[in-house]
Amino acid sequence: MTNDDILQKLQAKFGQTIQHIEEPYGMLTFEAPKEDNLKILSFLKDDPSLQFTYLNDLTVVHYPEQIGKELCVVYLLQNIYTKTRIRFKTYTDIITPEVYTATSLYATANWLEREAYDFFGVQFIGHPNLIRIMNVEEMDYHPLRKEFPLEDQTRSDKDDDMFGR
Amino acid sequence: MRPVTHNTKVKLVEAPQGFTGEGFFTTKLSEVVGLARSNSIWPLPFATSCCGIEFMATMAAHYDLARFGSERLGFSPRQCDLLMVMGTISKKMAPVLRQVYLQMAEPRWVLAVGACASSGGIFDTYSVLQGIDQVIPVDVYVPGCPPRPEAILDGFMRIQDLVKQESIRRRTDDQYKELLNSYGIQ
Q1: Best exposed site among A76, B21, B32, B180 by fewest CB in 10 Å?
Q2: Is the pTM of this model over 0.95?
Q3: What is the helix (H) or strand (E) element at residue A20, kind and residue range?
């Protein structure tokens, strides 16, 4: 199964919604609107010739300069029979960061989406238990968004000049 | 001659100051209690990262924490006198550490080993507690990243000094209660 085969099947089914096709280091990467993420994921999973049954990872990237497309949700999928891996990106704005949950397709998505919610505040619609997974429950922000400083703000004993703040 | 040379320079703990007469010896109760406590501390190692590895060396034969009367490490906070916190404490770990401290019976002491336990160290970040003294009172801080076993032993000996000099009434006095109250304990 080559990248071209996968891409042809996707484009035959979804047409122009598959955009920004790249192959960095030979790994097929494409983008699609967030409304279509479940259709594309279920096609990739259930189509007998594709069988991307394993969600390797689900990550989020924050691009503050891309207005309206600030948060990028990345699905890393694997076909465990042919060892093929692909990357599927979908973008959402940061004001209503709502993306449909993939938990109905991949059980792994439960924790991965909780992590994405914890660090980036992506709201996964339909997630059964969307609560923080890594950080303390009392935390009132999503720390990996770029507008928040990395350093702990409760600290008073550090001279800012010496620590490059 | 025997192949093994025995250590003939065994050093005993000195007796406290007191008045000696024929068949009796008087001294202050607090000094006797302090002497007994300081030479039989049961440490509870709370090791979360690389300082814990240094502690393992401290504990093992080469550096041998047992020389200071701490042969017996306890792994239940209820049995222990000294909480040795070694390693990075994340904010999520902080309530756990606090719970362990609360489960220890008085008198109890806390040794913060290494930069992370003392101040957060290099982990000046949203997820790491900036020093365990934000959640529990600390008696002695050991600097280093990680500190060598000698430094941990030195910190341990400073704890022994504190234990030796502590008044037996310290744990019930107002200053101590105020200290605990400032941490929201009791």
Answers
A1: B21
A2: no
A3: strand A19-22
